[in-house]
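This protein record is not my work; I was only asked to verify it. Take the sequence as given and treat only the tokens as open to question. I have pasted the whole thing underneath without changing anything:
***
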Amino acid sequence: MENTWKQVDQFLERKTQKRDTDLQHILENNRTQGLPSIDVSPNLASFLHTLATIKGAKRILEIGTLGGYSTIWLAKAVQPVAGTVTTLEIDPHHAEVAKQNLQSTGLSELVEIKVGSAHHSLKEMIALHSEPFDFIFIDADKESSVAYFQAALQLSKSGTVIVTDNVVRKGEVVNENSDDKSVRGVRDLFDYIENLENVSSSALQTVGSKGYDGFCVSVVE
């Protein structure tokens, strides 16, 4: 089945996305630079772009940059409205690769890369009373999922969309006895959002070139 998932992903990508040699180069450059192959899939990246465009987002926050592949898709979403993307990355090498990739696509001026602990960067933005974001994408270490989501809420306003990636973990999210820190992190996240009164959430399972996983979309009321 995994081969079928990949074929369907490729078919959907070919039929629904305009070919962009710059974006293909990004993934190739990330591999050449030794980054782990954990970029979001092209179809999910396109979906994030679509969500941000539907939202009309002018200010986007991304937690977890890697080589900037999803960052570039998000930057393309805010480009028509002269918006901005703030992205957080703990690894200096990853941040440097992302910077190179952004420069190659001409989107550098729309993106601020904050290098260092996301926890520190988020606390700093909250302390400085940063202007709320319209759209937030969480794609960093899963054991910190609750902390990232709580910080995202403090940087949100009514109508803010929060997307959290990799929340199904090959189905392990239902394993209450799992000792995997990432699984426990996303289970804690679902326990947390279950009881939030001012947030509406919907989660979906996905299959494709990245295997079996899923994401959660939340809207602040």
Remarks:
- The beta strands are 59-63, 84-89, 111-115, 135-138, 161-165, 199-208, 211-220.
- Residues 2-220 form a domain with the Rossmann fold fold (CATH 3.40.50.150).
- Residues 122 and 192 are 19 Å apart (CA to CA).
